[in-house]
Amino acid sequence: MEIKTGAAQMDLAAIHQFLQNDSYWAKGIDFDIVKASLENSFCIGVFLDNKQVAFARVITDYHTFGWVADVFVLPDYRGRGISKSMMGFLTDQPWVGKLRRFMLSTRDAHELYRGYGFRSPGNAASIMEVHRPDVYLKRTSEEASHVSG
């Protein structure tokens, strides 16, 4: 197992395929959006035999705030401790320990992230959001209607 960092080290096509087709949070996402998101994030990938099998990125200024996003392990590689290796490597980055706030959102991996210090917000009432869960699917539908119209 090899852990690599940096957008240039990632298999962009494989990441896009997973996010677009298999993730619950980014269905229908456009390739160019994935590419730009990687270019503007700290990226980490796990590779086995030169194949990318896991990915995560942190949207960060490297000094005060970080948001962990797009974390996945391909289904055939789950249950092998890969996510733990990736999260351990990530949280061991010196700049991560200096962040005032380090956040993420998860539907089903709370126990994994608790092992790395993540907790429910102490004052959740102060956190606000604009949430557009179908924004990529909507874009795809609108683009299709422009082409056929």
What would your notes on this structure say?
The protein is α+β, with helices and mostly antiparallel strands. The chain has five helices and five strands, in the order βααβββαβαα. It has helices spanning 12-22, 31-39, 82-91, 110-114, 135-148, and strands at 2-5, 42-48, 51-60, 65-73, 101-104. It has a five-stranded mixed β-sheet with strand order 1-2-3-4-5, with helices on both faces. α1 (12-22) crosses α2. The protein is globular. 20% of the residues are buried. The model has no long low-confidence stretch (mean pLDDT 91).
Structural class: alpha+beta
Quote the beta fraction. Answer: 15-25%
Query: What string gives the helices and strands in order?
Result: EHHEEEHEHH
How many helical stretches? 5
> In terms of per-residue confidence, which ranges show pLDDT below 50 for 5 or more consecutive residues?
none
Mean residue pLDDT: 91
Shape: globular
